[in-house]
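Example record for the data management plan.
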Amino acid sequence: MKPVTDTISVLLKSMLAGLTLTFSCYAIASNTAAERWFEIELIVFTPTTGNDLKEQFDGQVTPIRLSNSFDLVTSHYQPDISSLLATLAPCNLPSETATDRLAVAVQNWQQWQPPFSPIFCLSERQPPSWQRVSLFPEYLVNSQLPMPDSLPVQLAAKSDRHQPVPYLAPRSAFALSDLASKISRQPNQTLLLHTVWRQAPVTERLAVPSRWFGGTNYSELTDYWGQDRTQAATDNAAATATALTILDNEQQDDVFSAIDTLLDQLNAAGKLEALPDQRQQLPLSGDNLSNLPDRVWQLDGLFKLHLDHYLFVNTDFNLRRFSAAGLQSINVKQSRRVISGELHYLDHPYLGIILQIRRFQPPEQEAEAK
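Corresponding structural encoding:
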């Protein structure tokens, strides 16, 4: 009986190991389902530009860097090229040895012989799929395409497909549409953004803010620091015309004398002096321009949601508005502890934010094989 007992013991150990492995795989597979998901509805509005309030704010532009944020707006208006990149074959990278380098050279020469090899390829080795899992979305978009002159107020996804990363919700998820309509009907209010997205919040240390922008696109009128692009183009054209006139009329025998004369004229006209007002603000030397938005929107900023026993919201927005002094930038930064299901209002003289965070139950994953 002892051999039979040993056999049963081995079988039981094997079954327990199999069950442990099965439960471990199930725990990993259902990790996403165990997360606490929330649905965030955001309404942003501002008073009409004709109303000048008594409150005075610093006119300098406060830079909001976007290096550590995810963007759900750009991916909605710009095409996602991830599927196109997936079809490209990896390029033949050069090897270390002389024999391999010779083989690569021959292969590159053969690419120009029929049949031709693909012209486009991926020059960097792509990590395996299990290494590309991220808590936040990573969209590969063609950001060089032109954006509209103004964005629609309501931003919603076209489908209700659940994703393991933060994503836009469809129009059916909008619960505050009546409130947004009432705000838009007010004669002294302008609705800038109304959207709903879903995400599973993490702790403040791991939280990544989301970027949101909307309203009018001021990129052709001003740069990020508020400098007037149209006036600068006019000044450059006038200076060029003056220089050409001087040279064409041969008023100066020497080219360098003509340049000195032109500089004296610009200096006398005050064109070479940096004006101190907000419309001529220059970036500080410590500002990293690569982390700033490449377009100037009426509303642009960050929204961070994190969960540390309670839900917390941090907002940092820049609002561009026209006043008697021209186009000014107002920075609105607020922090608030919120309760899910309640309606919260973040008040500011120039920017109103209505917020509601609701619990969201992700749909159960369908069985792979029925």
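Summary line stored alongside the record: The two ends are 43 Å apart (CA to CA).
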